[in-house]
């Protein structure tokens, strides 16, 4: 029989659904695939480490996510022709978090025939963007204003994405699996584990519909391609390939110890506004439960397995190569995927990097906390050893970082 606590959690989930229905006037959620992750999210809201502000904010986030689902699904019902939109070839960038995938995403999005999905349209996809107003849509200014108060914070140092820049596609997931771009996983343990324990096909099938909606009136150039990126669900990479047969893949690789420490630092910076006092969920995680390392190993195993089964559609990019020569590394990735690089690739990449280093974005921190992890322990793990051997990943004897890349 369900425990009284289980009944409370289910009732709170139903209350969130009722709130979303009341806000939108809509009630057709199109299935129940979102209920598993939402239930996990509600369960985690009881985490005593979360402060009152965090609990209220994170609950509102769940309501907002369901509102977007209701509205998008209703729009698709009203415009069934959207689901007939042909999806062009996709360059899909992924890898463990903090491998330079954000930088690579931005560089590959400079291709004149590429179409990335920007943060504002992923978060607020309705009405669907139109080519004529894509760069001036009022949602850009509105979203930018909402994130500007975070300037100068640790978050800006670790990972900053403006409203009009390419972003993690998890922001566009429609089933409560991508809230806050999955950046709050250290604080939401049950919700963080949900993707690893469940089939992600429904998530990707809903996302496919969102992609069709976003490119309906604002497609890539003729004969162009989409440039997508998502590192947060790497463990389900093979499933993504089945749902998106149009995709070729760029896998980003870096010293797993450096990735792990950097990911912990990023997660800590995202969670801090929501935690009670000076408590950090990652200190206990790093020193005791080792959940961050466990999650990273699942991603490494998935990438290694996927590369063996789909090698014809994969370009591998090492972080050290990207940092030492971004132009040559990006050029090589295009060639591996059979995409002609633009003739002015060097100018495009140099222009992007110069803008990033112009001082408008905070530089990465000089020193990162290790959260209890030791480089030798990470590198001696069999999963890490197999991954590094498969992709020729070498240790960073000293931390390699390019300023203001958001990587």
Descriptive overview:
It is a single chain. The chain has helices spanning 4-24, 35-44, 52-78, 101-108, 119-123, 138-147, 154-158, 189-197, 201-216, 237-243, 256-271, 281-289, 291-309, 319-324, 326-337, 345-356, 375-379, 382-391, and strands at residues 90-94, 114-116, 225-229, 247-253, 314-318. It has 407 residues and is α/β, with parallel strands linked by helices. It is globular and about 55 Å long. It has a single domain (89-391), classed as Rossmann fold, CATH 3.40.50. The longest helix is centred in the first third of the chain and has 27 residues, at 52-78. The mean pLDDT is 91. It contains 18 helices and 5 strands.
Compact description:
The protein has 407 residues and is an alpha/beta fold. It has helices spanning 4-24, 35-44, 52-78, 101-108, 119-123, 138-147, 154-158, 189-197, 201-216, 237-243, 256-271, 281-289, 291-309, 319-324, 326-337, 345-356, 375-379, 382-391, and strands at 90-94, 114-116, 225-229, 247-253, 314-318. The longest helix is centred in the N-terminal third of the chain and has 27 residues, at 52-78.
Task: List the SSEs and their pairings.
Elements: H1 4-24, H2 35-44, H3 52-78, E1 90-94, H4 101-108, E2 114-116, H5 119-123, H6 138-147, H7 154-158, H8 189-197, H9 201-216, E3 225-229, H10 237-243, E4 247-253, H11 256-271, H12 281-289, H13 291-309, E5 314-318, H14 319-324, H15 326-337, H16 345-356, H17 375-379, H18 382-391
Parallel strand pairs: 1-3, 1-4, 2-3, 4-5
């Amino acid at each position: 029989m369900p425990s009284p606590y289980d009944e409370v959690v289910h009732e709170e989930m139903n209350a969130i659904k009722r709130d979303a229905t009341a806000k939108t006037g809509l009630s057709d959620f199109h299935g129940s695939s979102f209920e598993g992750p939402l239930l996990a999210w509600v369960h985690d809201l009881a985490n005593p480490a979360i402060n009152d502000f965090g609990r209220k904010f994170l609950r509102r986030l769940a309501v907002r996510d369901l509102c977007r689902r209701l509205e998008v699904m209703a729009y698709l019902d009203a415009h069934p022709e959207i689901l007939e939109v042909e999806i062009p070839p996709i360059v899909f960038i992924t890898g463990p978090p903090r491998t330079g995938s954000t930088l690579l995403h931005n560089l590959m999005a400079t291709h004149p025939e590429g179409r990335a999905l920007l943060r504002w349209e992923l978060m607020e996809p309705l009405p669907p963007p139109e080519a004529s107003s894509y760069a001036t849509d009022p949602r850009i200014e509105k979203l930018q204003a909402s994130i500007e108060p975070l300037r100068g914070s640790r978050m800006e140092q670790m990972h900053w994405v403006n409203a009009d820049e390419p972003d993690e596609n998890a922001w566009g997931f429609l089933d409560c699996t991508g809230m806050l771009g999955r950046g709050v996983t250290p604080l939401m343990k049950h919700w963080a584990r949900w993707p690893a324990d469940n089939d992600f096909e429904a998530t990707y099938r809903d996302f496919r519909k969102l992609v069709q909606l976003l490119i309906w009136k604002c497609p890539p150039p003729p004969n162009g391609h989409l440039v997508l990126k998502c590192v947060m669900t790497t463990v389900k990479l093979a499933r993504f390939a089945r749902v998106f047969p149009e995709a070729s893949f760029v896998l980003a690789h870096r010293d797993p110890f450096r990735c792990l420490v950097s990911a912990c630092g990023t997660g800590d910076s995202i969670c801090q506004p929501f935690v009670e006092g000076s408590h950090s969920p990652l200190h206990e995680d790093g020193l005791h439960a080792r959940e961050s390392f466990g999650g990273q190993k699942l991603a490494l195993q998935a990438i290694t397995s996927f590369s063996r089964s789909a090698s014809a559609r994969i370009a591998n990019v090492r972080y050290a190569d990207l940092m030492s020569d971004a132009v040559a590394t990006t050029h090589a990735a295009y060639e591996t995927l059979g995409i002609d690089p633009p003739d002015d690739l060097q100018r495009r990449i140099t222009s992007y990097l110069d803008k990033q280093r112009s001082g408008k974005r905070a530089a990465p921190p000089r020193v990162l906390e290790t959260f209890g992890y030791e480089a030798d322990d990470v590198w001696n793990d069999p999963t890490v050893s197999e991954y590094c051997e498969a992709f020729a990943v070498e240790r960073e004897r000293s931390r390699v970082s390019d300023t203001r890349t958001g990587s």
